């Protein structure tokens, strides 16, 4: 159908924006399959030096986290330096990693390749769809230690906790009034 073709095209465009291919180009020869097919997966994993315990030779001086590859350590270290060398040409938002910029750019593209089978809501990233699916399950794993109210998302519980702690995060620049949530501030600022 035309709708299916459009979503396939949107998915392909999504993968291209992320610098990925929707079709894996790596293939394993039948000889390689035969060679490894009879061995257990655990045995095959043991052959991979980057998977062995104790092989993390690169340690972050700031936090002590260990890495198997020096490149991964360097990638990690930008969280400590605050360096954000990748910026969006459309809105100016900057990122520590190129992959984060590419994910962000999907917002501007309008491509939403992942949609919820239950309600039809669409998302630019599969992780956002996965977070959304929890709302349909009815499972609320996060609870407020003060009043017992339950939430399906940790962020919603954390925002709720501000009600009890009176932790003020948002402040009106014009009059100084303080708010717990950004939406409250925006509602307040509009009449100014």
TrEMBL record:
<dbReference type="InterPro" id="IPR013087">
    <property type="entry name" value="Znf_C2H2_type"/>
</dbReference>
<dbReference type="GO" id="GO:0000981">
    <property type="term" value="F:DNA-binding transcription factor activity, RNA polymerase II-specific"/>
</dbReference>
<dbReference type="Pfam" id="PF00096">
    <property type="entry name" value="zf-C2H2"/>
</dbReference>
<feature type="domain" description="C2H2-type">
    <location>
        <begin position="114"/>
        <end position="141"/>
    </location>
</feature>
<keyword id="KW-0479">Metal-binding</keyword>
<keyword id="KW-0539">Nucleus</keyword>
<feature type="domain" description="C2H2-type">
    <location>
        <begin position="170"/>
        <end position="192"/>
    </location>
</feature>
<feature type="region of interest" description="Disordered">
    <location>
        <begin position="26"/>
        <end position="61"/>
    </location>
</feature>
<feature type="domain" description="C2H2-type">
    <location>
        <begin position="142"/>
        <end position="165"/>
    </location>
</feature>
<keyword id="KW-0238">DNA-binding</keyword>
<feature type="domain" description="C2H2-type">
    <location>
        <begin position="86"/>
        <end position="113"/>
    </location>
</feature>
<keyword id="KW-0862">Zinc</keyword>
<feature type="domain" description="C2H2-type">
    <location>
        <begin position="58"/>
        <end position="85"/>
    </location>
</feature>
<dbReference type="GO" id="GO:0000977">
    <property type="term" value="F:RNA polymerase II transcription regulatory region sequence-specific DNA binding"/>
</dbReference>
<dbReference type="InterPro" id="IPR036236">
    <property type="entry name" value="Znf_C2H2_sf"/>
</dbReference>
<dbReference type="InterPro" id="IPR050717">
    <property type="entry name" value="C2H2-ZF_Transcription_Reg"/>
</dbReference>
<keyword id="KW-0863">Zinc-finger</keyword>
<keyword id="KW-0805">Transcription regulation</keyword>
<protein>
    <recommendedName>
        <fullName>C2H2-type domain-containing protein</fullName>
    </recommendedName>
</protein>
<keyword id="KW-0677">Repeat</keyword>
<comment type="similarity">
    <text>Belongs to the krueppel C2H2-type zinc-finger protein family.</text>
</comment>
<dbReference type="GO" id="GO:0008270">
    <property type="term" value="F:zinc ion binding"/>
</dbReference>
<keyword id="KW-0804">Transcription</keyword>
<dbReference type="GO" id="GO:0005634">
    <property type="term" value="C:nucleus"/>
</dbReference>
<feature type="compositionally biased region" description="Basic and acidic residues">
    <location>
        <begin position="33"/>
        <end position="48"/>
    </location>
</feature>
